[in-house]
Amino acid sequence: xxxxxxxxxxxxxxxxxxxxxxxxxxxxxxxxxxxxxxxxxxxxxxxxxxxxxxxxxxxxxxxxxxxxxxxxxxxxxxxxxxxxxxxxxxxxxxxxxxxxxxxxxxxxxxxxxxxxxxxxxxxxxxxxxxxxxxxxxxxxxxxxxxxxxxxxxxxxxxxxxxxxxxxxxxxxxxxxxxxxxxxxxxxxxxxxxxxxxxxxxxxxxxxxxxxxxxxxxxxxxxxxxxxxxxxxxxxxxxxxxxxxxxxxxxxxxxxxxxxxxxxxxxxxxxxxxxxxxxxxxxxxxxxxxxxxxxxxxxxxxxxxxxxxxxxxxxxxxxxxxxxxxxxxxxxxxxxxxxxxxxxxxxxxxxxxxxxxxxxxxxxxxxxxxxxxxxxxxxxxxxxxxxxxxxxxxxxxxxxxxxxxxxxxxxxxxxxxxxxxxxxxxxxxxxxxxxxxxxxxxxxxxxxxxxxxxxxxxxxxxxxxxxxxxxxxxxxxxxxxxxxxxxxxxxxxxxxxxxxxxxxxxxxxxxxxxxxxxxxxxxxxxxxxxxxxxxxxxxxxxxxxxxxxxxxxxxxxxxxxxxxxxxxxxxxxxxxxxxxxxxxxxxxxxxxxxxxxxxxxxxxxxxxxxxxxxxxxxxxxxxxxxxxxxxxxxxxxxxxxxxxxxxxxxxxxxxxxxxxxxxxxxxxxxxxxxxxxxxxxxxxxxxxxxxxxxxxxxxxxxxxxxxxxxxxxxxxxxxxxxxxxxxxxxxxxxxxxxxxxxxxxxxxxxxxxxxxxxxxxxxxxxxxxxxxxxxxxxxxxxxxxxxxxxxxxxxxxxxxxxxxxxxxxxxxxxxxxxxxxxxxxxxxxxxxxxxxxxxxxxxxxxxxxxxxxxxxxxxxxxxxxxxxxxxxxxxxxxxxxxxxxxxxxxxxxxxxxxxxxxxxxxxxxxxxxxxxxxxxxxxxxxxxxxxxxxxxxxxxxxxxxxxxxxxxxxxxxxxxxxxxxxxxxxxxxxxxxxxxxxxxxxxx
Length: 987
Hints:
- This protein is mainly β.
- Strand 46 and strand 47 (789-799) form a beta hairpin.
């Protein structure tokens, strides 16, 4: 009898284990097999509605994608569109929990399942989801119907409010379900999804603490929100398993079992020291798979896999530290849409990797997404390629109150919860412009509640005098700090079409020619490639001069707006923004290579970078200046083996060789250090006459998928007889496509920007086109022809994708590998100290001495100003001790537009006399090292407007760009106002 009872008990336990084992979660790709109708239609939510005539699509898919780059942002179509999907769930799923997860839609959507309303989502940014467990039809066709409105003036139904970020200047309106969708099936004891706004759940949270970077270990913590929706209490053990990038298990650990009552939600947590870690870093996207399991009676009932990485980040001394090494921020302010012609933002995951890794290849370490949170695909892509992210939530150009501020807090909460396991996010941005201290406190509280251990700074643009912000920085100008890091948010935003080499090359664009913008000439917004690259050098060098190692107060760098030409607010002659360092098809401009040279280093630039700007194909008799961008100490130019001497160095990295007479052949540049040791070389060769077309394919490294959403990129070049690209070719290319593919085309200057046209010209000898797969696998052939050129073809082949009953187990990012090219964080220090700040202990002045301290208080929103008369235009600083002084650095009011005649005295002895130079922030007076204990700065006459900077632009919203603190006194002949003074001795 006893034996029988024991056997029965064992059978019950085994049956329980089998039951729970069957309850493990399954996640499906929910992108395939949707139907689309553009327009509003009655009863489209009903299961009996006939949608057979609707367009069949695979998500992600914006219904107005055809207009991307064809129309200016404000003209993108809006209205109602319906999306419908039929699906059948696997047998037994109706007894489990079933969730839908949407990465996002644009703008507001109403969702129906089997004719019943299941919810609404309206902010147009964040992820969301629905629990559809109770509405599933067993073994039957289930119908999901979505009505989406992408109006620019969409109003949230409950609060009757528009959204601040639904803005025609920067938020390209690609309407519909433009992001990925997944379906999850779990048991009734499960780890929740991180979908706060609709499911009110927070998912799991993984982070590292107690770092030992040199020892390669840290304590890894995993915690999950767990719900028990079974009828009984469950004794649950939480187990964590960590696998490295090769899939090897490196650690397994568990918490003690915890009893969870039916209907309860708890947080389960486990942590352990893990050795032998590879820390995530810039250009080193090392990721682990962390598996969190729920176990009952030893059997796994729920298992969740999370890709994440571990890195240490700190924000102190005015600098950013990554894995204990200082990193100067350099990169791009990129529109969150990150869009492509005729596709918009809805690209496959491999193409996100391709675009984002190009940023890293230009030696950018940071992308500041603008205004709204990027979609999960781009966030995960940055994890893989090793690109740090600044993640906004949602805003426009100013602080707001009431409902609109509540909306901003809500999307920040959702975004943090959804993305807190992504190691590439290091900054949370609360506003594209300054917000109040009270609002900063509210945002910081959200971060502290939902991501207290992620090693992320929270701040906003500006925030220079708000202590609650953990980072800040103005849009276009240099800020420095001795405490929190400050970096510029959009430091160079000039525009230039890739097609415009220079005025000597077809189409012979004279730099700055073009229509006016807001009554200003086009010099900033219609540059050629020479001046666009040179401007990038000029702008960055000013930040580089204030980098870590240059004193107590430093700049933490900045980001250039933008990376790729964008279908958003524009100022040039095209209907899209051309500020990119690559064009809309991600073909590099010269500015891309300029950054690659200047940014190659964590702080100090590596000396080996070099780039020759432009090409070497001109008409006989042409004379033009040649520009070399190099991090070396000097650069020499050779033409057909003959030295043309050394270039004139300016702006830190630019070498100019004036009036070089063109000769066909080879133009070579060599850089050297100060001792004459060769560092690097590069060359340009004259190409022969155009004779042929060359096609090169770029596609998903795991294969071109026949899923109806994958894209292949094909580069077209005009080449000479030996295969060299002809850099001044502008030939019209005609394409023919056969096989299971959809033509999406490319972009070029011309009617409708040639969007969707099967003929378009090369520009600078090159262009690119996109083709999209269908759901039929097979061979695709692309043929390119042009008058007078030898035609060519290229073959592509799509691979089958398994879809059953509307569900697939294949996902867009499957098989994509991390970029590890840059290697791990450097072991050695990343900068050399070049000068040392001398502490100022007091100051007196000709007027307003009680305010003199404001000129050295590490606050760039405060200043000292005299009374406007020349005899009081002086200020004297007392130093902590007698020092050998060699430099004085000033940020004066009018720093952008005025030059002030000043003299500087050390202990009463004149050491400098001259004019300040208008700049992005700071002017440095360098003089012979002189011992002293006091420094006096004296104005010698009236400041004068700089001819180059006399007109200060305005932002999109009409706000005047910064030029310091507006003071009446500085408009007088004897007015002097100083925002910050720094005094240095050379190291």
